[in-house]
Design goal:
Elements (H helix, E strand, L loop, with lengths): L8 E8 L5 H11 L5 H4 L10 H6 L6 E8 L5 E8 L7 H9 L3 E7 L6 H12 L3 E7 L8 H11 L8 E2 L8 H11 L12 E10 L3 E10 L2 E2 L3 E4 L4 E4 L2 E5 L3 E4 L1 E2 L4 E5 L13 E4 L18 E7 L5 H14 L4 E7 L3 E8 L2 H14 L4 E3 L6 E5 L4 E4 L11 E16 L3 H10 L3 E8 L2 E9 H15 L5 E12 L1 E8 L2 E2 L5 E4 H18 L7 E7 L2 E8 L15 H21 L6 H8 L4
Parallel strand pairs: 1-3, 1-4, 4-5, 5-6
Antiparallel strand pairs: 2-3, 7-8, 7-16, 8-15, 9-14, 10-11, 10-16, 12-13, 12-15, 17-19, 17-20, 18-19, 21-22, 21-23, 23-25, 23-26, 24-25, 27-28, 27-29, 27-30, 30-31
Helix pairs in contact: 12-14
InterPro entries: EF-4 (IPR006297), EFG_III/V (IPR035647), EFG_V-like (IPR000640), EFTu-like_2 (IPR004161), G_TR_CS (IPR031157), LepA_C_sf (IPR038363), LepA_CTD (IPR013842), LepA_IV (IPR035654)
EC number: 3.6.5.n1
Protein name: Elongation factor 4
């Protein structure tokens, strides 16, 4: 096999907001360069979105890579390595990894919608990686498309020249050949020395039932050959390479990968945990001295407990989580027990969509029925004895007298919204204890930057934002820092017993409203028992809201006809004593549905 000169290689990723047409453009590029035949593409859209859940929701979750061969107008043969990246804020770490392996990006913007919040976030990530950026306006064939206006917007908001943006319609294939030429002429080739010691970046890894762990790499210097002994510098583990190859999207094996190339290797690696994303791979016999700059590890920001509805499914859940962990390094979990829900796991996620996807994959791929507790974030507690502890489960909170202060994480949110919804968006942020940083206009749309506490955002902020803006607002955020806050632990007591699955940390000013909503909801959900059940929301020893579930009663005076009132009273008193005794010893059965519904309580 003749090796392609490094000057004829182009590594690029496609960045865009959700639904602006990244995966569809990737389809067209694969089709036009002959990566898959029309028959293989038939009836299948978004070829690179391999999970069912990606297809149904129409989003990309895992970044995928594909190698294409292209003969340009200058008659030379080029190799394109294309990375299709997710557009959603929760999967930003997938984006950052893909970008580090490339030299350039195609920035796809919907010509009818313009620049959105995630477009900005992903472009800034590309610019941080020193990428050359080619703007591409997609959906120009739609009647609502306004290409000139959107070009102006790209220049105003992002500050990159969009005068020669490529106009395309990824769905019909219009203008896609111009994109291929732009990749050749406007994106830089990779740099690298073929004769140097092997130095490669570990971009991603996933588990394959037949091959073990498949590792996606980008070779920087040297060559990666079959049979070579390699070393992972981060974990100091050494392996023998068994297979070397690339995806076209089908797996193709080759003897070696040279500098600038992106491909995969397998080396009898058992656990995905052994392959740290962002690690440097080098030759075992003569390793390089300096590691490549890795990626920031994915830090979970949202935590919640997952419990099986049927306690017998616990082992199945444990095995299922282990398998998911193999393909998603950003998902973490540890065991926990709850008096109300039994055995389960405390899991960490990158955001609410990530949580939802993992939950859905567990119930779908492993046929599990799960209950999730209220999502919470990491709080830092400074104790009076000078210790600092991190807490992400309200149940573990130490005694109030031992706490000096509590810090909560804050984020900087960027929200883009059409002008007519600005008032309701600002009110929503204000209600969530936000403080406004700046407000600017991008054409007819407002761009607001807000500092918000993360625990107000994880609850249901995204849903509320979509409903107050009729779905037009877009939202992106990143963590900034921790700030001291007046937070209290609110417990829900049912018949004077605390229900640990429903306890949460809330801001003191919001506690009463949240507590009242919670007890009203629980009152509807708990079925009546033979005795009355008080449901209370309490902070420490102080009850802030209460509702009562009425008792079921038998009419004990039914058989007293006429006669003295004292006979009736005697029977009623006796019944009252019995109810009191029952309430003392009676156990309240809270149905599982009640937990699920109460945890979805809307503020």
């Amino acid at each position: 096999m003749t090796t392609t000169p490094i000057s004829n290689i182009r590594n690029f990723s496609i960045v865009a907001h959700i639904d602006h047409g990244k995966s569809t453009l990737a389809d067209r590029l694969i089709q036009m360069t002959g990566g898959l035949t029309d028959r293989e593409m038939a009836g299948k859209e978004q070829v690179l979105d391999s999970m069912d859940i990606e297809r149904e929701r129409g989003i990309t979750i895992k970044a995928q890579t594909v190698r294409l061969n292209y003969r340009a107008k200058d008659g030379k043969d080029y190799i394109f390595n294309l990375m299709d990246t997710p557009g959603h804020v929760d999967f930003a770490y997938e984006v950052s990894r893909s970008l580090a392996a490339c030299e350039g990006s195609l920035l796809v913007v919907d010509a009818s919608q313009g620049v959105e919040a995630q477009t900005l976030a992903n472009v800034y990530q590309a610019l941080d990686n020193n990428h050359e950026i080619v703007p591409v306006l997609n959906k120009v064939d739609l009647p609502a498309a306004e290409p000139d206006k959107v070009k102006q917007q790209i220049e105003d908001v992002i500050g990159i020249d969009a005068s020669d943006a490529v106009m395309i319609s990824a769905k019909t294939g219009l203008g896609v050949p111009d994109v291929l030429e732009a990749i050749v002429t406007r994106l830089p080739p990779p740099k690298g020395d073929r004769d140097a010691t092997l130095k490669a970046l570990l971009v991603d890894s996933w588990y394959d039932v037949y091959l073990g762990v498949v590792v996606l790499i980008r070779v920087v210097d040297g060559t990666m050959k079959k049979g070579q002994r390699i070393r992972m510098m981060g974990t100091s583990a050494a392996y023998d390479v068994e297979r070397v190859g690339f995806f076209t999207p089908k797996m193709q094996q080759v003897d070696e990968l040279g500098p600038g190339e992106i491909g995969f290797i397998t080396a009898a690696i058992k656990e995905v945990a052994d392959t740290r994303v962002g690690d440097t791979i080098t030759d075992d016999k003569k390793p390089v001295t300096e590691m490549l700059p890795g990626f920031k590890p994915a830090i979970p920001v949202v935590f919640c407990g997952l419990f099986p509805v049927d306690a017998d499914d616990f082992e199945t859940l444990r095995a299922a989580m282990g398998k998911l962990r193999l393909n998603d390094a950003s998902f973490s979990f540890e065991m926990e027990t709850s008096a109300a829900l039994g055995f389960g796991f405390r899991c960490g996620f990158l955001g609410l969509l990530h949580l939802e996807i993992i939950q859905e994959r567990l119930s779908r791929e492993f046929d599990l029925n799960l209950i999730a507790t209220a999502p919470s974030v990491i709080y830092k507690m400074h104790l009076t004895d000078g210790q600092e502890i991190e807490i992400h489960n309200p149940v573990d909170m130490p005694d109030v007298v031992k706490i000096a202060d509590i810090e909560e994480p804050w984020i900087e949110a960027t929200i883009l919204t059409p002008d007519e919804y600005l008032g309701s968006v600002l009110k929503l942020c204000q209600d969530r204890r936000g403080s406004q940083k700046e407000l600017t206009y991008v054409g007819s749309r407002a761009m607001v930057k807000y500092d918000l506490p993360l625990n107000e955002v994880v609850f249901d902020f995204y849903d509320r934002l979509k409903s107050v803006s009729k779905g037009y607002a877009s939202f992106d955020y990143h963590l900034t820092d921790y700030k001291v806050a007046d937070l209290v632990k609110m417990q829900i007591l049912v018949n004077a017993e605390p229900v640990d699955a429903l306890s949460m940390l809330v801001h003191r000013t919001r506690a009463e409203g949240r507590g009242r909503a919670m007890v009203e909801k629980m009152k509807e959900l708990i079925p009546p028992h033979m005795f009355q059940i008080p449901i209370q929301a309490a902070i420490g020893g102080k009850v802030i809201a209460r509702e009562t579930v009425r008792a079921l009663r038998k009419d004990v005076t039914a058989k007293c006809y006429g006669g003295d009132i004292t006979r009736k009273r005697k029977l009623l008193e006796k019944q009252k004593e019995g109810k009191k005794k029952m309430r003392q010893f009676g156990k309240v059965d809270i149905p599982q549905e009640a937990f699920i519904a109460a945890l979805k309580v809307d503020s």
